[in-house]
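Bug #77: duplicate submission created two jobs. Keeping one. Sequence:
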Amino acid sequence: METVVQNDMYLMIKRAVSEAIKEGRMNLYLSLLPEVDDEEMKDIISKLGTPSKNDEYEKLNSLINAEN
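Kept job's structure:
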């Protein structure tokens, strides 16, 4: 009985720590991204076009998810 409680406790702590690390990593990623205003974003889109859904966003998203 005690082993079951220990395993449950271990899994709860492991999940909490993993979520905290994931949240911290996401905050770091977001803090490193530069902010742009609407006018600057329109200028970027006019010069480079709209990115496809499967471009760098998908690569970064899969990288983030793979680490967790």
